[in-house]
Amino acid sequence: MRVVQVFGRSTRSLEEAPDGRGVLVVDQTRLPFAFERVRVDTLAGAADAISRMVVRGAPLIGVTAAYGLALALAADPSDTGLSAAVATLAATRPTAVNLRWALERVRARAVAAAPSARFDVAWREARAIAEEDVAMCARIGEHGLALLRDVAARSSGAPIRLLTHCNAGWLAAVDWGTALAPIYRAYDEGLPVHVFADETRPRNQGASLTAWELAAHGVPVTLVADNAAGHLLQRGEIDACIVGADRVTRRGDVANKIGTYLKALAARAHGVPFWVALPASTIDWTLDDGARIPIEERSEDEVLRVAGRAEDGRVVRVAVAPPGVRARNPAFDVTPAALVTALVTERGSCAASEEGLLSLYPERRPA
Amino acid sequence: MRVVQVFGRSTRSLEEAPDGRGVLVVDQTRLPFAFERVRVDTLAGAADAISRMVVRGAPLIGVTAAYGLALALAADPSDTGLSAAVATLAATRPTAVNLRWALERVRARAVAAAPSARFDVAWREARAIAEEDVAMCARIGEHGLALLRDVAARSSGAPIRLLTHCNAGWLAAVDWGTALAPIYRAYDEGLPVHVFADETRPRNQGASLTAWELAAHGVPVTLVADNAAGHLLQRGEIDACIVGADRVTRRGDVANKIGTYLKALAARAHGVPFWVALPASTIDWTLDDGARIPIEERSEDEVLRVAGRAEDGRVVRVAVAPPGVRARNPAFDVTPAALVTALVTERGSCAASEEGLLSLYPERRPA
């Protein structure tokens, strides 16, 4: 089932090319001003698409890396080629754990096969990961919808006002998304929702991706500066916050797009629920403490310049800082579990704690 | 004494024109890519300069309004003209209280004079307000410097890392600034400082004004996205936060540029001092509760578009959101007194509380 619509047409962020030797991905660096697919059909192409953020979002990074590894094996199915491809893809982004999870899954399948069968085996595993991601996101939508219904039951017919940060919609996954999946479900069921989307500097995924995909589906959305969340929460204008995640530790600490932590602090200060939606592939069972999650530092250029459409229609990058000024650009921050009201996974919602996660994933309980 | 330098030359944000019938102000909408003065010589010109944010910053808004009222009286010194000019100027910005304070001060002087003398009386009062602002900011610098010395004493020679939001430098006042005055004093005395400047969307005053004026004076500055503060504070990379204010209630609640509240929450979460620097003219003794401060909502266009310099050198505005998407744009938020470590005024530092403020301003103690 694919329900998310772009101007009335169902779509996915990544699809297999008809020839079965590449994938077509939406070029997210071109949104919201152009909706174009580009073909990825080599290891280098996949690594470039992930590192340049042509594709982004923890689930989609994982799926793209899985296909990228399969494509690498089409060119070089040797053990050496396999190891080199895994290393290349793993190095593209340090924070999202789905990337490493997906690579390990495909690698384990491939290494068990004869070199001549490795491409086929890896391709089928990548496809399985993609299809599982769609199914997991659909279930996250179901479980999140239950939370939204609870809010709606208290709001006597007024629209539920939700704050989200960055983009955790279908563009961040294969379909549905994580944080936006419950919102799409609510909207499709006729539950009134209104989304406040943080702009999400420095790369503006809230403006260019979240506002775009919600508006394309018809969901009411209002863009706000990243600075506005505290004021809106203080004035009682937000009923709940829902965001995605790039990595969640076994104790429930959440690495997500830079700025998430500030919004979580403000939500807590005003008693507003702060939900984090994620598939199991985002959980890093090897880490307890969020302070140990590696935080990617990206180019200062992303802070010093902003991309947008000029009045003549051209998309250009403009400098916002004086020449010579330097910038820092941490791409993620860590929200401690104590600030998270609930984790919403494909198996249901739970407390952001080791006990909470183990209640949903009992197979992870130490023997 | 004017010590703040722009590329080695002393300067002020506002100066009287040599003919005494207008003021020359730095056009802050053109920074950081052009440093130009424009002449304001009518009521309409002053109102336009304030509302379009050619001049901005609570102290400078007050001074500009004072001169604007004098200029209005040059054209029409009648009681009717006086009242109409006060109303016009008071309506330009709702949040900064310095505006109303300065207008009332000039109005009281003018109304006591014969119409023929009103321009001269008002002009002299505006000049007095401007000179007092410079003196107050210099003293804020002294008192803030004492706080910075305390931090330095604990940092064993490493640079003091300060976070600031928006612009509360000499561009926001006549000279020195409020939050940046202690930083200029520290730098000039050889105390090592490093400023992290929040970009301050939607109007980017951190990038276009704070980074510009600090760099022009030689103070080390790093630009960060508004989203980054929580991460930097969490990782122990900020020693203290210092911001300005647009209005402070008698109990110490602080209205300042949107986003200030989020930073104050994060500073508190990590035990980092959060200082607010302000002259007495920013205190609203008539208000107890910050929730009653009117919060200006500005055009959604400021959120939907970003101004910057394109590669061809032209300064252009680019759309960052998809066509048709709407935005909200509250320009200020209120930081509760409980989150403010100290208020730094021209009379010294105090707790952000009624008792704290009354200890510095005993003449305001109810009889």
Write structural notes for this entry.
The structure is a homodimer of 367-residue chains. Chain A is globular and about 60 Å long. The first copy, chain A, has helices at residues 43-51, 58-75, 79-90, 97-111, 115-154, 181-188, 205-217, 229-234, 260-269, 301-304, 354-360, and strands at residues 5-6, 9-10, 14-16, 23-26, 37-40, 160-164, 193-198, 221-224, 240-243, 247-249, 254-257, 274-277, 283-284, 305-309, 315-319, 326-327, 332-335, 342-345, 348-350. Chain A is an alpha/beta fold. In chain A, strands 8-7-6-9-12-18-19 form a 7-stranded mixed sheet, with helices on both faces. Chain A has a 4-stranded mixed sheet with strand order 13-10-11-17, covered by helices on one side. In chain A, helix 2 packs parallel to helix 4, helix 4 (97-111) packs antiparallel against helix 5 and helix 5 (115-154) crosses helix 6. In chain A, strand 7, helix 7 (205-217) and strand 8 form a beta-alpha-beta unit. Helix content of chain A is 39%, strand content 19%. At the A-B interface, helix 7, strand 8, helix 8, helix 9 and strand 14 of A face helix 7, strand 8, helix 8, helix 9 and strand 14 of B. Strand 16 of chain A pairs parallel with strand 8 (221-224) of chain B.
SSE blueprint and pairings:
The structure is a homodimer.
Chain A: E1 5-6, E2 9-10, E3 14-16, E4 23-26, E5 37-40, H1 43-51, H2 58-75, H3 79-90, H4 97-111, H5 115-154, E6 160-164, H6 181-188, E7 193-198, H7 205-217, E8 221-224, H8 229-234, E9 240-243, E10 247-249, E11 254-257, H9 260-269, E12 274-277, E13 283-284, H10 301-304, E14 305-309, E15 315-319, E16 326-327, E17 332-335, E18 342-345, E19 348-350, H11 354-360
Helix pairs in contact in A: 1-2, 2-3, 2-4, 2-5, 3-4, 4-5, 5-6
